[in-house]
Write a structure and sequence with these properties.
The structure holds 2 protein chains of 2 kinds.
Chain A (H helix, E strand, L loop, with lengths): L2 E4 L4 E4 L4 E5 L13 H9 L7 E7 L7 E7 L5 E6 L13
Antiparallel strand pairs in A: 1-2, 3-4, 4-5, 5-6
Chain B lengths: L13 E10 L2 E7 L3 H7 L6 E2 L6 E2 L12 E4 L6 E5 L9 E5 L8 H4 L1 H4 L6 H5 L4 H14 L14 E13 L3 H12 L4 E4 L15 E2 L2 E2 H13 L4 E4 L2 E7 L3 E7 L13 E13 L3 E3 L12 E2 L1 H11 L6 E6 L5 H9 L3 E7 L6 H10 L3 E3 L1 E7 L6 E7 L6 E9 L2 E5 L2 E3 L2 H5 L4 E4 L4 E4 L6 E3 L9 H16 L3 H4 L6 E2 L25 E3 L4 E2 H9 L5 H8 L12 H12 L3 H4 L13 H5 L16 H6 L3 E5 L2 E6 L7 H14 L2 E4 L4 E6 L3 H8 L12 E7 L5 E11 L2 E6 L4 H15 L6 E4 L4 E7 L3 H8 L14 E7 L2 E7 L7 E7 L3 H12 L5 E2 L2 H11 L48 E8 L11 E4 L9 E11 L4 E9 L8 E5 L5 E7 L50 E5 L3 E7 L7 E3 L5 E3 L7 E4 ...
The chains are: A mainly beta, B alpha+beta.
The complex binds zinc ion (ZN).
């Protein structure tokens, strides 16, 4: 059971208060019609699934109901940083594009 | 025979309290402070069980968790507990135990050792695999024989409790290192928890004869413990085994409470501690390792540490004539103490050549013979050890020199070194490294938040352990020993010199010819077995473990693993570090299922949601269907009615007269804000921006993949106010879905979302007579089509309560869904039945709801769809906009090439050729021509019922290219090999013209029957609180607010600091997360950014914000959520402990202040915990959970006493 800091509630809570939505910073294409089936399919289905640092969207379901970003190491489960939607991770965690 | 082995004096036992107990049917006596093992040894019981495979006699080897042989089952009936080690069972009056391993599992008593030699390692794999039938027979026999003990079949009447803890430093193990670490940690002001598995603190000090500062070690322990108790932030947990260390420093500990305290099962038997520690000090010590030699399993062979423990702690001498065989210095203390207590030490065999002078001097003083370069090679005796063969070791210590000679003795203590207890750290994936100097696996590295101290680190003297306790805390806090200033005690002990690394004594014969040399006592794995596995090609210890069962017992190889690794290393010619250890997995020692389940058993197994009309359903004999956590009436059987008969009756009532469904579980999401229309329009595949105020529309929600996610009716109350209905099962996920889009893709939209599922009680009145019922309920409501058309809504006053009525239909009949705040739900429901009586009004459940909608071909998202269907697949293409004006979710995907395939699975109806046969849901559909395996699947049945309306069975199905296959016959495969023929038809079976949901001619004007009873709907408190015993000694008082007003305020807002509270005063809008502000008894709680909950008791005069909200600034939205919640007031001295049992949140005063409010997990559901001025809290839970939460509180407070 992980402990996750919610940047809106400003407190640390147990993992079971949250839901992991998936990879963060996947931008929805502005003009989907201009995309080929393949390019649209990649937006819909393809994810990096890295070993190591991974940026994820988490949702504080039981608490403030806000979505926010988490940089989590998928190997050690260490949480490297947490930041709000629309923000970028701090430089320390900003290793992969 | 009575306690023949008990020493005259000494020990930490209370000789004045004598306990009678029984073991394997024989009565004995022991003392308070004994373990079952020490009491058995005191009584001269040397045989405690038989071995698992070979049925050999076995005695007690160890004195703690490591004991492999004395596995017992305690008690009887539903209180019976298997799988306990006698060395850990505290003796109590009347204790009744039996050995788990007395039965002759394989008939070896009769067959003797002949058969045993026929059961080599891997016996089952080798002999039972072929033919297959033999495996099945073998498996059955093995199941009979497997395991150590039996589970009780009855329901366990005991209470198992759980606590959540938070601390700065958790110290695991309260031996010398742990206690000193605790002293140092407490000094820094940290929140400290010290946990130890023993009944009292002290660890090895309780067994040792060493003196500290000139007095006994126990004096030092008492002084340290007293000092720790004086610290307010230190929690001491004895009898608590930390059995696992998990991610982010979650430590799990099981506390065995003193038992039985009382016979009425009001106090818990075990308590699971879930400890979140910022940092962990592992002072877990080490377990002594036995030497492996021939016949080393005879009763009378023990660990030196166990001998010393029984002598010093329990005043038991488990023999008369001792031979000590060792490879290290520490074991000498046992022999010296044995001698000093007047017993005979026959000899000490030390494998080493050079011994330190202190040992030689100690032996000379006591006239004990030391045989250096000697080892024990074989034990002999029939029922008990009576002599031992010892021999000189060659220079490389791998073979024997000369003939062994015999020593007579009745006790051998053997040590081949120590195994540090590194299990917990290894749980978090730290690897172990073999240290040849120490002869132990030590931790390679630890995480920055976990440090080790003492014997677990390889420290071999008491002075080193005590020192390491302080340095460990120093490392965590970056402090020096001088900073911490913990006095270093003065200890007199023998220094430790380098041990020999020998695991197994050589024998004059090879391993396969010598008498058995046991490595794993519990599962009867011998050195020869491991060598055979190596010869058969097994190379890694993980495979050898699985093949031989080494370390698979409930002791998890605490004594055997390292010795097994050594035998394998020897066989393969590899080093210990090349072989490495198996992976350590939690739990460290067995944990009861009761303790893991805690109070989540019986009616607290899972959170339960009840509708406001729940009690009525109970009283009217409803059968239940679980829909998520909701309890929904499934059907209402009359006397002697079968389910099908009841459903037929309910269906016909709804079609011909009037039926009523409790639809309160439908998800309801309130959508406000000036961009609400844009938002709803983008979320649905059909247009909503053009929905007129007062009207409703059925909508489809797609994933961005274009697949159907959910469906339901959405209503518009104002230009900037919608209500989205979701399916019962998707209420939570749809809200999360809307929030995701709003917060991550369209944050610029002003949209405010509130779940109001619990606020509204929903009653669906269905059938041709529904309009007459409605007229009785709202005599002034205009019901004609022009005034109240299909797919519209009315907000009306029903007997003093504001109600919302939707004219929508999920049945195809004329139907009205009436919504009132949930506190009025039961009253409305009863009123409707009163009015509908003349029409034969009939309640119906979810099964009838399903039949009615299936007759119309209405889908249920999640039953007929599974996330891989488009609107077109479901024949709902009319729900998708053709224009490209709005970029709604899922739009682009609909043009994907794959979605245009003609052979996609498509939604159709099925009619069986035999109208009485009902197809099985999930049944696979095959072509008539192609039914031989492997046949290609043409589709599958998603819904199937008997339709009383049509007098035949109907089914809904997905069929490949189904929309072009009407009239075709498919074959549904049944489990028994038969096929049912069914024809593909339209999915609309009933009333394809939709005439039934229109308003017919009125059956009479101005119906007087219903006007008669005009009264006010009454509020119903959410709970029945009868039957709770009132106690004097209450630790908690609970009060349910029956008269609260609760509203939700929503932003976004800019610059608004205060809102009007009551008539006279304003109240600050709390901006700081998880805090509240208040005025005149009204509280405003922060729920999230731009979201507040306001609650107060209803007041007679003086409108406040929670009454109307009209005086609020226009930027703030106001949603009445009174019916959404129940408010409990909790006060008394034990409130914090109730919260500790129910929440993982840290309610320590340093975190949770008097103006704190926190929305968190409470009892596996959600609760808002609001601190109040009287050291108590208000607990606000969703109303549907209030029955469950109430039961939880009653159960969790049994030990404190609860007043209502
Ligand atoms: Zn939060």
């Amino acid at each position: 059971m992980l402990r996750i800091y919610c940047p809106y509630c400003e407190s640390v809570r147990d993992e079971d208060e949250f839901h992991c939505v998936g990879e963060a910073h996947i931008k929805r294409p502005e003009r989907p019609d201009e995309l080929s089936d393949q390019a649209w399919g990649e937006y819909l289905h393809f994810r990096t699934n890295p070993r190591g640092e991974h940026r994820e969207i988490w949702h504080h379901v039981v608490g403030c109901r806000q979505h926010f970003n988490v940089v989590r190491d998928t190997e050690t489960y260490e949480i490297k940083s947490v930041y709000r939607v629309g923000e970028e991770p701090s430089s320390a965690a900003d290793s992969d594009a | 025979m009575s306690q023949v082995r008990r020493l005259e004096k000494g020990g930490r036992i209370d000789r004045s309290t004598r306990f009678e107990f029984s073991f394997n049917g024989t009565s004995y006596t022991g003392f308070k402070g004994d373990t079952l093992a020490s009491a058995l040894l005191a009584n001269g019981v040397s045989e405690v069980g038989r071995s698992f495979k070979y049925y050999r006699r076995r005695g007690i080897v160890g004195s703690g968790v490591e004991e492999p042989n004395a596995i017992v089952q305690l008690g009887s009936g539903s209180l019976s507990t298997p799988n306990l080690r006698a060395s850990e069972v505290e003796l109590s009056a009347g204790l009744s135990a039996r050995s788990a391993t007395t039965t002759d599992r394989f008939g070896l008593r009769r067959l003797g050792s002949l058969f045993s030699s026929l059961m080599p390692v891997g016996f089952y794999y080798k002999t039972l695999m072929r033919p297959k039938a033999l495996w099945e027979l073998g498996e059955k026999l093995m199941r009979e024989a497997a395991g150590l003990g039996n589970l009780s079949r009855g329901r366990d009447p005991d209470i198992y409790d759980k606590y959540h803890h938070h601390c700065d430093v958790l110290i695991v193990g309260a031996g010398a290192a742990g206690l000193n670490a605790a002293l140092a940690a407490a000094k820094t002001g940290s929140r400290v928890i010290v946990a130890d598995e023993q009944t009292e603190f002290g660890g090895w000090l309780l067994s040792s004869s060493v003196t500290i500062d000139g007095t006994s070690a126990t004096t030092w322990i008492e002084r340290v413990v007293t000092s720790l108790r004086a610290h307010p932030h230190v929690i001491l947990l004895s009898r608590t085994t930390i059995f696992g260390l998990y991610d982010h420093n979650l430590a799990m500990g099981c506390e065995r409470l003193v038992y039985p305290k009382s016979a009425d099962f009001q106090s818990p038997r075990e308590r699971l501690h879930q400890i979140r520690a910022k940092q962990v000090v592992l002072a877990t010590g080490a377990i002594e390792r036995p030497l492996t030699f021939a016949n080393n399993d005879l009763p009378g062979i023990m660990l030196p540490s166990a001998v010393l423990t029984y002598l010093n702690r329990y005043a038991v001498a488990p023999g008369n004539d001792l031979v000590l065989a060792t490879t290290n210095d520490q074991a000498y203390e046992a022999a010296f103490r044995w001698h000093d207590l007047g017993k005979r030490v026959v000899a000490i065999c030390d494998s080493r050549s050079d011994l330190q002078p202190a040992l030689i001097k100690g032996c000379e003083e006591r006239n004990i013979k030391i045989l250096n370069e000697h080892i024990v090679t074989e034990a002999r005796g029939k029922k008990h050890l009576n002599r031992v063969l010892i021999a000189r070791l060659s220079a490389d210590k791998r073979s024997l020199i000369g003939k062994p000679h015999v020593l007579r003795c009745d006790l051998i203590a053997t040590s081949s070194g120590w195994n540090p207890v590194i299990h917990l750290n290894a749980h978090t994936r730290t690897m172990a490294r073999w240290d040849e100097d120490e002869g132990s696996f030590l931790l390679d590295s630890t995480s920055p938040d976990v440090v080790t101290a003492g014997a677990v680190n390889g420290a071999r003297t008491l002075a080193a352990c005590i020192r390491e306790g302080v340095t460990a805390i120093g490392r965590l806090h970056a402090l020096t020993e001088r900073d911490l200033d913990i006095p270093t005690p003065n200890i007199e002990e023998i220094e430790s010199t380098r041990p020999d690394v020998i695991f197994k004594a050589p024998h004059v014969r090879t391993e396969s010819r010598a008498p058995k040399q046991f490595v794993d006592f519990q599962l009867d794995v011998t050195a020869a077995d491991i060598q055979l596995a190596a010869r058969e090609g097994y190379r890694t210890i993980e495979h050898v473990k699985r093949y031989t069962a080494l370390g698979f017992g409930n002791d998890q190889g605490k004594l055997s693993n390292v010795n097994g690794i050594a035998v394998l290393a020897g066989s393969l010619g590899k080093s210990m570090s090349e072989i490495g250890t198996t992976v350590f997995r939690p739990p460290y020692t067995p944990v009861t299922f009761g303790s893991i389940a805690g109070r989540s058993v019986g009616d607290l197994f899972d959170p339960e949601r009840h509708t406001p009309m729940h009690q009525w359903h109970v009283e009217h004999g409803a059968e239940w269907e679980n829909v998520g956590q909701w309890k929904r009436p499934w059907f209402y059987p009359c006397t002697d009615e079968s389910m099908q008969e009841a459903v037929n009756r309910e269906v016909l009532a709804a079609r011909s007269s009037v039926g009523v469904l409790d639809a309160s579980t439908l998800g309801k999401i309130d959508v406000r804000g000036k961009d609400a229309a844009i938002f709803v329009d983008r979320i649905y595949s059909n247009a909503f921006a053009n929905l007129r105020v007062g009207r409703c529309r059925y909508g489809l929600m797609l994933r961005d993949t274009g697949m159907i996610f959910d469906d339901g009716v959405t209503a518009r109350f104002a230009e900037d106010h919608f209500l989205i209905h979701t399916t019962t099962g998707h209420a939570e996920s749809v809200l999360s879905w809307l929030e995701l889009w709003h917060q991550t893709e369209w944050p610029d939209l002003d949209v405010r979302l509130t779940s109001v599922t619990d606020h509204w009680a929903t009653v669906a009145v269905v059938g041709p007579e529904s309009r007459n019922v409605l007229r009785g309920l709202c005599p002034d409501l205009q019901l004609a089509d022009e005034r109240f058309p299909f797919m519209s809504l009315q907000v009306v006053d029903i007997e003093g309560v504001e109600a919302r009525i939707f004219r929508i239909s999920f049945s195809g009949e004329l139907s009205y869904e009436i919504n009132v705040p949930s506190q009025y739900g039961l009253s409305l429901w009863e009123r409707i039945f009163e009015i509908g009586k003349p029409y034969g009004i009939t309640p119906y459940g979810t099964e009838t709801m399903h039949v009615l909608r299936a007759e119309k071909g209405f889908i249920i998202a999640g039953q007929d769809t599974d996330g891989s269907m488009t609107a077109a697949d479901m024949d709902l293409a009319w729900c998708v906009r053709k224009s490209d004006d709005v970029e709604f979710v899922g739009r682009r995907s609909l043009a994907l090439r794959d979605y245009q395939r003609l052979d996609r699975m498509q939604f159709v109806g099925l009619e069986t050729v035999d109208p009485k046969t009902v197809l099985p849901e999930g049944g696979q559909l095959l072509d008539a021509q192609n039914k031989t395996v492997p046949a290609s699947m043409q589709g599958y049945v998603t819904s199937s019922y008997f339709s009383a309306t049509l007098g035949r069975s109907i089914a809904l199905a997905m069929v490949s290219g189904g929309h072009r296959r009407f009239g075709e016959t498919l074959h549904c495969a049944i489990r028994d090999g038969r096929f049912i023929e069914a024809k593909i038809v339209s999915s609309t079976f009933y009333d394809p013209e939709n005439s039934a949901q229109k308003v017919g001619t009125l059956s009479g004007t101005n119906d007087e029957r219903s006007r008669a009873a005009s009264r006010v709907l009454s509020q119903v408190a959410a709970l029945e609180t009868n039957g709770i015993p009132v106690r004097e000694d209450v630790g908690i008082s609970l009060r349910l607010w029956g008269d609260s007003r609760i509203v939700t305020l929503l932003g976004p807002i800019d610059g608004i600091e205060q809102i009007p509270g009551s008539l006279s005063s304003d109240v600050a809008l709390p901006k700081e997360p998880c805090t509240w502000s208040s005025v005149d008894g009204m509280k405003v709680c922060w729920l999230g950014p731009n979201r507040w909950l306001v609650f107060e008791r209803s007041r007679d005069e003086g409108a406040s914000v929670s009454d109307k909200g009209s005086r609020l600034p226009s930027e703030i939205s106001f949603v009445d959520t009174t019916g959404n919640y129940s408010v409990f007031s909790l006060s008394g001295s034990s409130v914090k402990r109730l919260l500790q049992k129910s929440c993982a949140y840290d309610f320590h005063e340093s975190v949770f202040h008097t103006n704190s409010c926190v929305l968190t997990t409470f009892a596996k559901t959600q609760g808002l915990v609001v601190a109040n001025e009287n050291d108590g809290v208000e607990l606000i839970v969703r109303r549907s959970y209030s029955d469950y939460v109430y039961r939880w509180i009653v159960d969790a407070t049994r030990e404190f006493g609860l007043a209502i």
